[in-house]
Amino acid sequence: MSNGVIQSVLTEKRVFPPFPGLVENANLSGMQAYEALCEQARRDPDAFWGQQARELLVWSKPFTQVLDASQAPTYRWFPDGELNLSVNCLDKHLGTPTADKTAIVFEADDGQVTRVSYRELHARVCVFANGLASLGCKKGDRVIIYLPMSIEAIVAMQACVRLGVTHSVVFGGFSSKSLNERIVDVGASLVITADGQCRGGRKLPLKPAVDDALAMGGCDAVRKVVVYQRTGGEVAWNEGRDVWLHDLLAGQSDQCEPVPVEAEHPSFILYTSGSTGKPKGVQHASAGFLLWALMTTRWTFDIKPDDVFWCTADVGWITGHSYIVYGPLAAGATQVVFEGVPTYPNAGRFWEMIQRHHVSVFYTAPTAIRSLIKAAESTPDVHPRHYTLDSLRIIGSVGEPINPEAWMWYYTQVGRERCAVVDTWWQTETGGHMLTPLPGVTPMKPGSCAMPLPGIEAAVVDEHGKELEAGHGGLLVIKRPWPGMIRNVWGDPERFRKSYFPEELGGVYLAGDSAQKDADGYFWIMGRVDDVLNVSGHRLGTMEVESALVAHPLVAEAAVVGRPDDTTGEAVVAFVVLKRDVPEGAEAVELGKQLRDWIAKEIGPIAKPRDIRFGENLPKTRSGKIMRRLLRTVAKGESVTQDVSTLENPAILDQLSKSV
Ligand code: WT7
């Protein structure tokens, strides 16, 4: 985050009390109730979590133990209990009035709307699960899902957990190379994909990336590729391996016996960037994950039977897992699922959809808010003021710090000064919200994610693990385990311990963010402390982009840093040393384009550097260490005022200051 944003956040003094109308009926109502719950969780965590798990989840075999900490930091929650996640999201509602309620309102890119009730969704999941079972999928297998936003994607994920199959969803924007790495790492036996996807009025192919990924090798375990027909375009077909989804599902029964799994059974693995080149497979459990997704859906979004919830994330990210596929379904909510993009057919699409579907709880990312602010300034027709947004009562934000200016616009222009803004801080690894204001509890401060949820013990510490006083920036840590927490880095327990429970901190969970607490106990997130960038709310490892650049035949060395950006939060800036002389003019532009396309192919379009700088070397200390601190200054276009006396080659900074 830019220093400007940190400054404006830290001098923010405005406070907005919660609205009495929201407080009165909230699932968690009033500061006293919140504090009592926090106190209960602190005093007797086992009793607190045990009660929640018994009341909110349906167990096929009840648990007798709440937390097994004997192998910490590998915590085991409700270890002797058994359940099925799909039963908890679907079957549970069948004998109730929720059965005939709309579960999903799907709006396609072209505006076509499809509604699915809980009963229908249950039947579709059973049919799909039977299809998967007919291909030999069984408990313990791993299945890769590479699908566009669709009812099918949700059904596929639910069908996997119905069989005890561990899913690993790969966002459709990732390249074939990234897809290959995930297929190999997870040891997938099956891939579920689509012929293509519809976004922004265009049809984009998807299956070719799967064909390429499988041809790259290491995927021998993949027996079948199931293909959902979405765009109807031509597709290359691998006889014997590829199966159309509609053929697979034809004639399957709509009854499917759910497979009970142990509470700790891996429900899914989701890859996210870390500080080394290789993304981490974040492994989540079954019971604990679902419990936390459900508890937070009920608290933060205050979900009631009449709500229409809309989370704009893609199911390829954790936000889509927790707040599209699991939390809202387990809560029996009606939710909107959107295939397209916020700017098609125009930048009023979100507001128009809120109006059309009477959305009452809306959840999106600061990067989307900032780009829609810009759009409303340049094209006044798409300003939210032209839409009826009376249905809204809670509006949420996730993915990166929201600057107070964007917060105020969201609060006044979208929320019309009568909606709670919930700025939710959490991570792929936390499974659900950790720090957030609650609609019926918390006075809101623009730019602060407020306070931890009951059961969560957050603190700001120094590098030795010593807790810091209010007003001092430090490392954000979570001092006690919670059910939704990451269980392992898939296949790499050593990396799990080192990344999240470093010895120096004495056993607490290290989030990787810096933060500070103010005198009222509010947390203010300042950004990542590791080599992870946040581009449009998506995590990107600088090392990951560097390794991809260095893999290009022309590149000798590369360093990647983030630069603050008004719309995307951070933008990728790459400093590149070629194996030849430094290019200039048109040639530099051409090579820059080549490298950008290369990154799109190696990782995905989201990782494309905004800016590429060529130099004959990188700024290094005499011992050969790249001085990234200086590169960050250069990337911002600022002049270097830092001490450069330890620099071997100070002249290089001038050369690297020029963008191509
Ligand atoms: C990182 C986690 C959790 C779903 C989306 C991102 C940043 C997330 C906030 C927020 C400030 C935030 C943090 C965190 N972040 N939400 N409300 N305020 N920063 O999940 O890809 O795992 O990224 O996103 O830096 O560590 P993720």
Q: If you had to describe this structure to a student in words, what would you say it looks like?
A:
- Belongs to the ATP-dependent AMP-binding enzyme family.
- InterPro entries: Ac_CoA_lig, ACAS_N, AMP-bd_C, AMP-bd_C_sf, AMP-binding_CS, AMP-dep_synth/lig_dom, ANL_N_sf.
- Residues 98-482 form the AMP-dependent synthetase/ligase domain.
- ATP binds at residues 399-401, 423-428, 513, 528, 539.
- This is Acetyl-coenzyme A synthetase.
- The chain is an alpha/beta fold and 660 residues long.
- The protein has 20 helices and 30 strands.
- The chain has a seven-stranded mixed sheet with strand order 5-4-17-16-18-19-20, sandwiched between helices. The protein has a five-stranded parallel sheet with strand order 7-6-8-11-12, with helices on both faces.
- Strand 18, helix 14 and strand 19 (394-398) form a beta-alpha-beta unit.
- Helix 3 crosses helix 4 (45-56) and helix 5 packs across helix 7.
- Residues 272, 318-319, 398-401, 423-428, 449, 511-513, 525, 528, 534, 537, 539 line the site of 5'-O-[(S)-butoxy(hydroxy)phosphoryl]adenosine.
- The site of 5'-O-[(S)-butoxy(hydroxy)phosphoryl]adenosine has 22 residues, from helix 12, strand 20, strand 24 and strand 25.
